[in-house]
Amino acid sequence: MKVVIVGAGQVGFHIAERLSREGHDVSLIERDPEKATLMASQLNALVVQGTGASAESLDQVRIANTDLFIAVTDQDEVNLISCMLAKGEGVKRVISRIRNVEYAGRDWRDNAKKLGIDLLINPQRVVAEEICEVISYPAAADVAEFANGRVVFLGYKVPPDNPLAGITLRELGDLRGMYRLVVAALSRPNETIVPRGDDKIMPGDIVYFLCRKEDLAAINYLFGFEKRQTRTVMVLGGGRIGEAVTRELLARRLRVKVVERSAERCRYLAEHLPEVPVIHAEGTEIEVLKQEGLAETDVFVAVTDGDEQNILCSLLARNHGAKRVIALVSRPEYVSLAPGLGVDACISPRLATAAAILRFVRRGEVLSMAMVEECEAEVMEINLPARSSILGEPLRSVDMPRGSIIGAIVRGDEVIIPGGNDVLEAGDRAVVFTLPEAVTRVEKFFS
Amino acid sequence: MDLSQILQPQSILVPLREGSKEEIIRQLVDALPLGDGGPTAREEVLKAVFEREKVMSTGIGRGVALPHGKCEAVPGLLAAVGITKNPVPYEAIDGKPCRIFVLLVANPRTTHPHIQALATLSKILNDPARKSALETARNPADVLAALGIPAAG
């Protein structure tokens, strides 16, 4: 597939790297000459210095034969114009990132269609949705749903006193009759593995597993991950993301308080969200937050525009009684650091936006996809080919690419959490977990 | 996992009296060596097992049920086994009636052995040869032998 990406920011770079690693023909257009040179040295891609909104740059990347065009500069207008130009040149699918809410509101969808833009991605909305999903599974570090919500993918940190600590995969496999789950991965400080028989779950691991949603209550009973319900949330940062998160949480009937440092922004929030208490304070003014009930707060979410601020304030909140803390973290280096510090879940706008774009890219045989923040692994829901040597074989003798595992099989109305004796059939869909290095092989394997 | 530590011969009921799901579980709980705990302890264990049963049936299919629960009234980990002459309805996940019942109750602090014991028992009960040995067991010694537990003394 020929892919053109405009804008070599965090999202653009991430997607370019990912898609070129998977063997796609990637070109990148970047305005800043210095950045363009840097990209050319770091990426296996054609890098053109210029703007995506000019015919010259588009000529240089041979736009006419492009399958996919992704505009992710930090200027909405440039993204929109580039996309329109690209569509005019016959590009099959075009994606534009839009930060301004006025452009990305509901009505805009119709306009996007008129302009020929296939997908508009609003990072604030993507992040807000992801934060709310994580909040709805109180103890989870990672959450995604598949097969129309019938299959869940969850990641939990294993405390030392958790019954899973010290259990081998073989022992878990023996429990299949009653507790059906497939452990997809164990994530440790320096590695993430797809575990097998004798591998042991260790305290401190993040265990990622897939199960049927209806089995979740029983699994939870035995392993005791989710011990409390979420009722109250304190949101630090009343900017666009904070507002979007608050609206989403209100829709889920949670009690929300917003803490915001700017008086002007506080007034705006009070006017637009009259049912939400807005506290004019800094995230470090712990006495004020305590008076506002920090110690009784189920979840503290820090979504200011500073990574350090978000990490620091969420740790502070945790020290003063917040039961669970979630931080918005943009810098890739911090995303892997934060869990070790005691932040329960990290949401990265870069990864969330990139995941939303990749989901769209993988449209076709791949129905749905989620990215695991801590290890950049993917979970994909894939339509199986009508003919393939993998059909009809018990899974134990199917030679899956190293670093991948089938976590669920969807067959009509039935969801199977497979063991070694289960068999794939034509027409099935498979939910597959794959480490980043195995993505290409997995896509080939199932095509 | 060494099952001999958690399963006493007097907690093995062959035959187990046929009855409703509740009657089956009650007989098994009554067979547990709860020591000084007395009737209150038994009620608490019953409550814990029924609570777990409400979440999802422990009838794991092919005629086997593994009711279990976590309860403070139990000092560590205890098991009881019962086998009925005829299969009885148990709301099992495959819809089939059950004959073999293994009860496992754990103190909330011994959850790790609890899971290992559940895994060991699940594995044994998945083995067709051991399962049919249980179905033909006529006394506690037969049951212990079928479970691979050496006879005492």
Can you tell me about this structure?
Helices cover 34% and strands 25% of the residues of chain A. Chain A is α/β, with parallel strands linked by helices and 447 residues long. Chain A folds into 4 domains: 120 residues, NAD(P)-binding Rossmann-like Domain (Rossmann fold); 91 residues, Alpha-Beta Plaits, CATH 3.30.70.1450; 92 residues, NAD(P)-binding Rossmann-like Domain (Rossmann fold); 87 residues, 2-Layer Sandwich (Alpha-Beta Plaits). In chain A, the strands form 4 sheets. In chain A, strands 3-2-1-4-5-6 form a 6-stranded parallel beta sheet, with helices on both faces. The longest helix of chain A has 14 residues. Chain B has a single domain, classed as Mannitol-specific EII, Chain A, CATH 3.40.930.10. Chain B is globular, with a radius of gyration of 14 Å. Chain B starts with 6 loop residues before the first strand and ends in a 7-residue tail after the last helix. The model of chain B has no long low-confidence stretch (mean pLDDT 91). Chains A and B meet through helix 8 and helix 9 of A and helix 3 of B.
